[in-house]
């Protein structure tokens, strides 16, 4: 019995259906197996220009759409509508990225944001920074951090083990993807502005390494 070609795998995006052809030197080194962990990239302070690098080195990466907005712009041809998406990616074990993308279609905006989030991936320093705890495990943050973005100021306060995430939905999603389990938040300003709020959470997580050089965290 003859049949047509089997349909392509349903899951994954269009880009992922095709084999990756790296465009950067770093991408080629990863495909050749000369770099096998994302830690090496962070240690060398290299900039990631291809989202596939992150997918290759962190195969367990998960994706969450944080927000989709309709943005309108006046042009000579009249009003132009586009969608702006914010996407977070993380491996629930210390790596988190947040990114945005704009496009005429929601789906394309989300794909762009997801690719951008991969390029912005960071390592979060975790620890047991709660005075109520002291277990010494990596379940929270090592200390309190303050982040800002747009009109939002946010404080992440380490919590004792088992507390969970005492936070709004957006912060819960981002902290969860980062692998921070027990934490409280205090926020000030335009906290209902989801993109700014998400970016403030990300800013806090960036500051867990603050001015510490990579040599400090490579053990
Ligand atoms: Zn603890």
| Amount of helix | 25-40%
Oligomeric assembly: single chain
Which regions contain 5 or more consecutive residues with pLDDT less than 50?
A: 1-15
Q: Give the number of DSSP strands.
A: 8
Amino-to-carboxy terminus distance: 60 Å
The ligands bound in this entry are: zinc ion
Order of helices and strands: HHHHEEEHEEEEHEHH
* Total helical elements: 8
* Whole-angstrom Rg: 19 Å
Q: How is this fold's topology laid out?
A:
Layout: H1 14-17, H2 25-31, H3 38-44, H4 51-57, E1 62-75, E2 78-90, E3 95-103, H5 106-119, E4 122-123, E5 145-149, E6 152-158, E7 165-166, H6 169-178, E8 183-189, H7 194-206, H8 214-217
Parallel strand pairs: 7-8
Antiparallel strand pairs: 1-2, 2-3, 3-4, 5-6, 6-8
Helix pairs in contact: 2-4, 4-5, 6-7
The structure holds zinc ion.
Residues 128, 130, 133, 135, 137, 139, 161 line the site of zinc ion.
Can you walk through the features of this model?
The chain has 219 residues and is of the alpha+beta class. The chain contains eight helices and eight strands. The strands form two sheets. A four-stranded antiparallel β-sheet has the order 1-2-3-4. The protein has a four-stranded mixed β-sheet with strand order 5-6-8-7. A hairpin with a 2-residue loop joins strand 1 (62-75) and strand 2 (78-90). Helix 2 (25-31) runs parallel beside helix 4 and helix 6 (169-178) runs parallel beside helix 7 (194-206). It binds zinc ion.
């Amino acid at each position: 019995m003859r049949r047509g070609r089997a349909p392509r795998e349903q899951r994954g995006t269009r880009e992922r259906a095709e084999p990756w052809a790296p465009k950067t030197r770093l991408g080629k080194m990863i495909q050749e197996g000369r770099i096998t962990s994302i830690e090496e990239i962070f240690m060398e302070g290299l900039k990631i220009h291809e989202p596939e690098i992150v997918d290759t080195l962190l195969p367990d990466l998960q994706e969450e759409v944080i927000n989709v907005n309709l943005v309108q712009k006046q042009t000579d041809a009249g009003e132009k509508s586009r969608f702006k998406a914010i996407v977070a990616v993380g491996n629930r074990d210390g790596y988190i990225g947040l990114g945005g993308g704009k496009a005429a279609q929601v789906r394309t905006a989300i794909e762009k944001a997801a690719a951008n989030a991969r390029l912005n991936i960071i390592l979060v320093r975790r620890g047991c920074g709660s005075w109520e705890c002291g277990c010494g495990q990596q379940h929270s943050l090592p200390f309190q951090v303050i982040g800002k973005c747009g009109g939002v100021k946010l404080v992440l306060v380490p919590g004792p083990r088992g507390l969970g995430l005492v936070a709004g939905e957006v912060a819960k999603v981002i902290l969860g993807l980062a692998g921070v389990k027990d934490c409280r938040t205090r926020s000030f300003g335009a906290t209902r502005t989801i993109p700014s709020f998400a970016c403030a959470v990300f800013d806090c997580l960036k500051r867990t390494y603050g001015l510490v050089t990579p040599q400090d965290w490579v053990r």
